[in-house]
Design goal:
Number of helices: 9
Keywords: Repeat, Ribonucleoprotein, Ribosomal protein, RNA-binding
Low-confidence stretches: none
Mean pLDDT: 81
Domain S1 motif: 26-92, 110-176, 197-265, 282-352, 369-439, 456-524
Structural class: alpha+beta
Family: Belongs to the bacterial ribosomal protein bS1 family.
Largest sheet: 5 strands, antiparallel
Pfam families: S1
Radius of gyration: 57 Å
Strand order of the largest sheet: 3-2-1-4-5
Distance between the termini: 208 Å
Shape: rod-shaped
Strand content: 35-45%
InterPro entries: NA-bd_OB-fold, Ribos_protein_bS1-like, Ribosomal_bS1, Ribosomal_protein_S1-like, S1_domain
């Protein structure tokens, strides 16, 4: 009876063993640790199979393995039996499969996952996500660049999965996304407690070319360089330093972008409120040059109040030069207030107005007719420019170079750098022009020579040359020419050869031309005038006297 029962039990066990499926390779199975030896855990995975797993596969990065006989674990069955008759199993691969299932679910639901940074690779770091290895790009470590990631290594912390591909085994995570989310929550809370116009204390965290970022207790605000002080600030580092605690005013809060604009000068008195009273028009003040541009120079009258000296108001004489050649940065200068626009916070200043107009000074000290001396600064097609006192120039026009030569010829006698003498002929202060004359130095010889000579006058001239067309004569050093037709009333006497050089001849003045500096002379006109005068004096139309009688009487009377 007992023998039959034993056979039945054996048969049932045998049938059960035949019915039991052998686990499939590449699947995760449960096992029990039956022993630990030689740095390995011996695990019974059932089905009369045992396998070995290195203890390090049971440890998290940077931690000691926690495993003991009797513990139940899940392992990955890589191979049912190897050459030694043992199952080839892996705890690490089991953890990976388990982790991938868990991570895919978290990725789908956009949940955070916990992991630890355990290595550095090109472009970032490796992260253990409880069995699966993910890549953490360097740009996703923190909200700001991290120079030393040592304190973050091996530390369990949350991450956000950005991308994953199980087939390729790729997972990309971000620590920055977690920080930004918590930071956004913190910012929203801090911003909710701030109001525009409120004065708060903050700590300078960073300084840039355009301003400084101030930490207001979990949220940063931008303090722009133009809002640091009423005066001009070239760089924020002039008045701020990193780590410094400053009092600022909240100027604007953007609820959508959570951006905060801050100001320091708004907590100080605005110097522009008193500008109009302190700097009346045409008043002169001493200021400091703070900035030089192509169009002028900025002068600080007091901290926070600057005015512009336009290039046109810098010098009476230097018209086309860069402002930097007239003034220099930090130089103290005297300026005059020309205009104030309080609405636009602008003050127009003048530098040249603090000095007398050099053309006015020259006009007072050098009236017309004054002789001056100067250096030829420039030669143009219409005359010479001569340097004068007061750093101004006068111009000698071509027509004022010589009495005897054409201007185009006379100008060839001058070179740049020559020192010349001239006479002031005109000063136009408004147009800033000074006219000079070189030919007037010895006086006007023509005017002196013909001062008492008028048209119709009879003068005595000396013959200086005989030509076919007439004769050349001279009167008080002034040369004139009498044409053949004017040599006599009688055509037979209109012969130039009847005169000799040195002869004295009485002639009648027919024209006085100051421009060409010539006298129009005629012997013929003199004879006709004398005849007319004789007729009027010694005869009449009804006396019956002949012309010969009249002229004879006139000649006798003259004798």
């Amino acid at each position: 009876m007992s023998a039959n029962a034993s056979m039945e039990e054996f048969e049932a066990l045998l049938n059960e063993s035949f019915e039991m499926d052998t686990p499939e390779e590449g699947s995760v199975v449960k096992g029990k640790v039956i022993a630990i030896e030689a740095g390995q855990a011996i695990i019974d995975v059932g089905y009369k199979m045992e396998g070995r797993v290195d203890l390090k596969e049971f440890a998290n990065p940077g931690e000691a393995p926690e495993i003991a006989p009797g513990d139940e674990v899940e392992v990955f069955l890589r191979q049912v039996e190897n050459a030694r008759g043992e199952a080839v199993i892996s705890r690490e691969m089991a953890r990976r499969e388990e982790a991938w299932d868990r991570l895919e679910k978290a990725y789908a639901e956009e949940e955070r996952v916990e992991g630890a940074i355990f290595g550095r690779v090109k472009g970032g770091f490796t992260v253990d996500l409880g069995g699966a290895v993910a890549f953490l790009p360097g740009s996703q470590v923190d909200v700001r660049p991290v120079r030393d990631a040592g304190p973050l290594m091996g530390l369990k912390q949350p991450f956000q999965i950005l991308k994953m591909d199980r087939r390729r085994g790729n997972i990309v995570v971000s620590r920055r996304a977690i920080l930004e989310e918590s930071r956004a929550e913190q910012r929203a809370e801090v911003i909710g407690n701030l109001t525009e116009g409120q004065a708060v204390d903050g700590v300078v965290k960073n300084i840039t070319e355009y301003g400084a970022f101030v930490d207001l207790g979990g949220v940063d605000g931008l303090l722009h360089v133009t809002d640091m002080a009423w005066r001009r600030v070239n760089h924020p580092s002039e008045i701020l330093s990193i780590g410094e605690t400053v009092k600022v005013q909240v100027i604007k809060i953007n609820k959508d972008t959570h951006r905060i604009s801050l100001g320091m000068k708004q907590l100080q008195e605005d110097p522009w409120d008193l500008v109009a009273a302190k700097y009346p028009l045409e008043s002169v003040h001493t200021g400091r040059v703070t900035n030089i541009t192509d169009y002028g120079a900025f002068v600080e009258l007091e901290p926070g109040v600057e005015g512009l000296v336009h290039v046109s108001e810098m010098s009476w004489t230097k018209k086309n030069v860069h402002p930097g050649k007239i003034v220099s940065t930090s130089q103290e200068v005297e300026v005059m207030v020309l205009e104030i626009d309080s609405a636009k916070r602008r003050v127009s200043l003048g530098l040249k107005q603090t000095m007398r107009n050099p053309w006015e000074v020259f006009s007072e000290t050098h009236p017309e007719g004054t002789e001056v001396e100067g250096e030829v600064k420039n030669i143009t097609e219409f005359g010479l420019f001569v340097g004068l006192d007061g750093d101004i120039d006068g111009m000698v026009h071509l027509s004022d170079l010589s009495w005897d030569e054409r201007g185009e010829d006379a100008i060839q006698n001058y070179r740049k750098g020559d020192v010349v003498q001239a006479v002031v002929s005109e000063v136009d202060v408004e147009k800033e022009r000074i006219s000079l004359s070189i030919k007037a130095l010895g006086g006007d010889k023509f005017a002196e020579a013909v001062g008492g000579v008028k048209r119709g006058s009879v003068i005595t001239v000396a013959v200086t040359a005989i030509e076919d067309g007439g004769i050349e004569v001279e009167y008080e050093g002034m040369k004139s020419f009498i044409r053949r037709s004017d040599l006599s009333r009688d055509r037979s006497e209109q012969r130039p050869e009847r005169f000799s050089v040195g002869d004295k001849v009485d002639v009648r003045v027919t024209n006085v031309d100051s421009k060409t500096r010539r006298l129009g002379l005629s012997i013929k006109a003199r004879e006709i005038a004398e005849e007319k005068e004789a007729v009027e004096q010694y005869g009449s139309s009804d006396s019956g006297a002949s012309l010969g009688d009249i002229l004879g009487a006139a000649l006798k009377g003259n004798e």
